[in-house]
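chain below, 135 aa
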Amino acid sequence: MRHSILLISMAGVMVASVASAEECDRNDQTQMGMNICAAQDYAASDAKLNVAYGDIMKRLSDNAGARKLLQDSQRAWIAFRDAECKFASSGVEGGSVQPMIHSGCLQGLIDARVTQLGSYLKCEEGDLSCPVPGQ
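prediction:
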């Protein structure tokens, strides 16, 4: 059992290192090239999402109830995002364009979520409709 887990972990590291070695070339208009760029764009948006989420969690450090609500909200949003993008890319499932369509969907929804979370970080003092306290 331990050997199986080790082999699976090593395989994951090898796949991740191969994927990260591929660089986006915006001039490469092959489907593979566009898929690589779409995946990297999605990853960049996801990194911004993680920062925004972390910033809110820091602001809510003294409010365990609000932290739990945000965590529940984020988990529900992730489930929605994944289901929505699976549906949105289902028309091209199995095709070479599917990774690009799926990544583009993820990026679009993530960018919207980053904007939404960012608005919580910009609430004016005294705004009772905002669940995140100002700095």
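DSSP finds four helices and no strands in the chain. Residues 67-123 form one domain.
thats it, cya
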